[in-house]
Design a protein that fits this description.
With about 375 residues, this protein is α/β, with parallel strands linked by helices. It is about 35% helix and about 15% strand. It has helices spanning about 10-20, 55-60, 75-85, 90, 105-110, 140-150, 165-180, 210-220, 225-230, 235-270, 305, 330-340, 355-360; strands at about 30-35, 65, 70, 115-120, 140, 155, 165, 185-195, 275-280, 285-290, 295, 305-310, 310-315, 320-325, 325-330. It is globular, with a radius of gyration of 22 Å.
Length: about 375
């Protein structure tokens, strides 16, 4: 179609207006969280037994905080801190499954700025019932994944060579959501992988490869008393199985890393990787005998369960940089908002601090900062914790 000379200024103006209307509100933000992931079981943290090339690549492309901690080694309070930048006693969730109070979340803030806000959570205690879907346009829950994949979804002690693993399903659902977003829209995506949580079991796992851990699993089905005996290592049942269970735990992490690799590849294919702010972390770690607690977390504040990985990668972030200053999961939200150029007068009150100056090399850690973590209620109370 050829425009007449006299009509060109009007057409150009219309195109300029259209371009302004469709200008993206900011960089894409991708937050990747892995449930029950110890920081010391990753390759970039120096663990020789790791098979985590994709997570290690993220660390190499950005800045890794090697002394980061969670606020509580339970999923719901920790994720609430991630989303709000608040300590548990401020956001209100003090135990697994307990809903947080009504506080602004990152998803709400990005939604208000015109972002498409998407989430996939593989843990039922990090979802709508706890208020953690607040601000998300679309939120995929474990129940929705079970209904979608039916008998093909590998969970618990299933053995389905032709099935789909939980981490694979999380990535597939995240990519499906991303494909619904137009190229001119910005995305805030949060994914929560669940696989390293007990029982440690991947689609490729075989009982004969870790027989002592599988013997332990058979006892695990005996109810709360048996679970408590295992966690407390009565008669040495857990410590005897630890080498085998530790091997399976590493396999779960490797399977999750592979799924994260597929997510990063999809982001690249969709043109959303190069300019994105990517944050990788965990809600908490896992006690593997530390503090006398086996295959569980939350009932003490041992480093094994409190210390978490924390990586920031993106255009304004120094690559191949390690920071040893103490940081907390409450710092993630204010840092992301700063990196995404959200004006400070739009930030709600947060307990966390903005780490962006440490990421681009323009600032140094504030000396004397105090961080803390809470333990949860004893494992003997109620059901098995998540």
């Amino acid at each position: 179609m050829t425009l007449g000379r006299g009509r060109w200024p009007m057409a150009a103006a219309a195109l300029l207006v259209a371009a302004c209307v469709h200008e993206r509100p900011g960089p894409d933000v991708i937050v990747i969280t892995v449930d029950t992931l110890r920081a010391d079981r990753l390759g970039y943290m120096g663990y020789a037994g790791a098979s985590t090339p994709n997570i290690d690549s993220l660390a190499a492309s950005g800045t890794a905080f090697t002394q980061a901690i969670t606020t509580m080694p339970r999923t719901t309070p920790a994720v609430a801190s991630l989303m709000t930048g608040l300590w548990p006693h401020h956001h209100g969730s003090r135990e697994v499954g307990e809903p947080m109070d009504d506080h602004p979340t990152m998803a709400q803030l990005f939604s208000g700025r015109g972002y498409a806000t998407l989430a996939v959570s593989a843990n039922r205690v990090a979802g709508p019932e706890q208020g953690l879907n607040t601000g998300f346009d679309r939120f995929v829950t474990p129940g929705q994944m079970r209904r979608r994949y039916g008998h093909r979804l590998v969970r618990g002690f299933d053995s389905k060579p032709d099935g789909i693993g939980l981490a694979e399903a999380v990535t597939e659902q995240a990519v499906r959501q991303l494909r619904t977003v137009g190229a001119g829209e910005s995305v805030f995506l949060w994914v929560l992988y669940f696989d390293p949580h007990l029982p440690y079991w991947t689609r490729q796992s075989r009982p004969e490869a870790a027989p002592r851990c599988w013997d332990l699993y058979s006892r695990w089905k005996g109810g709360h008393a048996e679970v408590g005996a295992i966690m407390a290592d009565l008669d040495g049942v857990a410590s005897a199985a630890l080498p085998d269970c530790s091997k399976l735990y590493d396999e779960e992490i490797a399977a999750t890393d592979a799924a994260i690799g597929r997510l990063l590849t999809a982001l690249d294919e969709l043109g959303r990787l190069d300019d994105a702010i990517i944050v990788f972390t965990a809600d908490h770690g896992e006690n593997l005998g530390e503090g006398g607690l086996f295959f569980e977390h939350g009932d003490n504040v041992h480093d094994a369960a409190v210390r978490i990985p924390l990586i920031f990668s993106g255009p304004r972030i120094e690559a191949k940089r390690e920071r040893t200053s103490g940081t907390s999961i409450v710092d993630v939200a204010p840092t992301i908002l700063s990196l995404a150029n959200v004006p400070t007068n739009e930030h709600p009150s947060m307990d966390g601090v903005d780490l962006s100056g440490l990421l681009d090399g323009t600032a140094e850690p504030t000396p004397g900062r105090v961080l803390f973590a809470e333990s949860a209620t004893p494992m003997w109370e109620g059901a098995v914790r998540h």
